[in-house]
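I'd like us to work through together how a protein chain folds, taking it slowly. To get us started, please write out a protein record for me. Label the sequence line and the structure token line clearly, so we can match residues to local backbone shapes. Once you have written the record down, we can walk along the chain together.
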Amino acid sequence: MKILKFIAVSLLVAGALSGCGGGGGGETAATTNPTVVSGIASKGPFAENSVVNIYAVTNGAKGRLITQTHTTDNNGSYRADLGSYSGPILVEVSGAYSDEATGHTVSVSAAAPIRAVLPQAQGSVSLPVTPLTELAVQNVGGALTSGNISAANALVSSIFKVDIIGTLPVVPTASAVADATQAQKDYTLALAAVSQMASTAGGASDSDKLKSVLSTLNGAISSSGLAESAATAFKTALTDFVTTNANNQTGINDTSSTSLVNAGTLSKGYTLALHSNLSTGSIKGIQLELVLPVGLTVNLNSSNATVLASSLAASGNVPSGAILYSRYASGVITLTVTAAQGLTAGPFAVLNCNVLPGASAPAGSSFAINNVKVVDLNGSPLAAQVTIE
């Protein structure tokens, strides 16, 4: 049996959204190692010396100021040592940034900062502060419980097709984007789309326009996704920014190979697993055809029909250096995974699908898995089963 000819692609492991369930949250006992929070403040990137305030969250509400720090460069980078604090945090950023759509320098006041919230800060943690994290804070509403924080961060991430907590956006220039991951590019372009929307919104100032857009987007968010009118406005603004805006410095002029073309829909994750009694590392490759149920789509590179890493990534027992390749046609994903050092039975890929508006996310049993082929290290066929849950 022959394995499909492989095309090497970089494997991206989907960043897990931070979160834990539970009640109001608060400070916990001192830890041996200090809690250090770092990240990027971007709407575009905040300028050096913008103010970053980090607050405890106590009994579901903004609590004491733990520390104040500043951005360290014009890329919006910041770092703060919280000492022995361990628990949920709220980060607020004020200062000035260069707007992507207009090129204007926009001031964000301390009275109306850009915010982000994390259900648990302990050890070294990364936390970007952006308009999308601000949307999540607005979506939480008045009760900053760990469960509400996690749910809001996950919902906004699902709607805008970027991990708003686990991914750091970059400076929106060609050089920065060239070295960025696809997830970072998507996050950067999503922020640019918000700026493009704000450039045509009503308001006395650029900061007022931004507040107006974020309020509109927040009002359009529900448990079933983003309202169709808001999703259309966001995607139109994204297209306008990359195709017609002279301030676009990213070098990207086509959105078809990003995950953002599906913004507005919710996502549903599924795990693909190989079942076999074979010994560890004895499997060379897996090949299969996965038929998507009606109502689900995936993020594609329109130029070559490959499935983007935001929709399909290796996971579980797949070793570093393995190759994952997939193509999509007529509702069917042809997937191949191979590893020179050998694969092991168990989970091997995560599939994140877009759930179309009005559709319910189907169970894994709704997928059809056809033409499964598994080979050992010598290329000989093996008996095995693949499931999706």
Observations:
- Confidence is low (pLDDT under 50) at residues 1-23.
- Residues 30 and 103 are 45 Å apart (CA to CA).
- The helical segments are 131-140, 146-160, 174-178, 182-199, 206-220, 228-244.
